[in-house]
Amino acid sequence: LKDQAKILTKLDFVVLQISKKDFDGFKKLFHRFLQVKGPSIDWAKISRPPEDSIQPYERIRAKGLPEDIAAALNRLVVVKLNGGLGTSMGCKGPKSLISVRNENTFLDLTVKQIEHLNKTYDTNVPLVLMNSFNTDEDTKKILQKYTHHRVQIHTFNQSRYPRINKESLLPIAKSMGADGEGEAWYPPGHGDIYARKEYIFVSNIDNLGATVDLFILQHLMSQPQDKRCEFIMEVTDKTRADVKGGTLIEYEERLRLLEIAQVPKAHVDEFKSVTKFKIFNTNNLWISLPAIKRVHDANALDLEIIVNPKTLDGGLNVIQLETAVGAAIKSFKNALGVNVPRSRFLPVKTTSDLLLVMSNLYSLDAGSLTMSKKREFPTTPHVKLGSSFTKVQEYLRRFENIPDMLELDHLTVSGDVTFGKNVSLKGTVIIIANHGDRIDIPAGAMLENKIVSGNLRILDH
Prior knowledge:
This protein is α/β, with parallel strands linked by helices.
């Protein structure tokens, strides 16, 4: 009993220390929030980044790889941001545990990618998962299944901050414990990854295009020591679907990430313009570990605060004070943007995205998804599934199997619609079942440049 009491006392002490650290971090963030009045950006000081500060990926790739790329890989750590839940897709628990392809979850695919690297090049690239208090317990349980895989997996927890009442600006949590008060707390974005100790490759676990790129890694490692690039942000060309994504600008002679939340209302349309701001941040980041330590020790990591308004289930309006990992680019030397192909940005935020990655548009090899060679155009089709498809279970119930989409350009589905086996979709397909109607697309159907509406039921007899 005495030993158990000692263990409990140690555990309580550890929990207390973590809570104290979280509280100190929140206090600093909240203090900064109270001091900042109005937008943190003076729009008149914004300019496009200099030409040489955003390199085309093709130029980096053209340099090729050395014979001993393994030496560079052995100096790399892969960090995946794993703090999000699957609630927006109707799933309980961590989003990384949703099956996305051939029964593989986001986490399975990540482990397979890194294991493939380690086996191919005989290296030891570890995987570090940055969990949140929402995902930590469930993720740790599942990690046991990877014990015999050739990849070392480590986890750490991002902070836990209290949500603030929008009117009173007071925390809505009544105590330090999260029991029964889950809604009162939130993980404050991924800017606090820097508060934990050559390079890390950081990306969102739900971006299936964010694999370790040997050419970018080699570019980092091949620079002379005094000109070492301490921070690379992968950006890609903006389309109309990405107008809200953060972009790179030059501000006070530094490369800086500009998020839509920082833009004065009068300039939001200008920010969304595809002609002025042509690229956006994929959140695939390559960062020097010694530089992180230097910046952190000097307390020079001044990340802009993102005020994220939310409405809780009971109707209470709250705000979350967040920071973004990419915002740190301004604090690092010789920072660079690399304009990568769209294939490195393949996020799965909705079931519309899920349909794309589950389809024959992509081939799966060693955990990596690549556009099928049978697709004539390199662009991804635009898919918009209606509210009947929002939840993963409901979405899966509506497809007997995933349609052939190799020649699809655009798909819109709205209302009570189901798809039979071996359906083929080509060109632009719009299927709309009005309220009270139902459309069953029959097995083997081929729809090319079609609009389907009204009522279509196919019943067994």
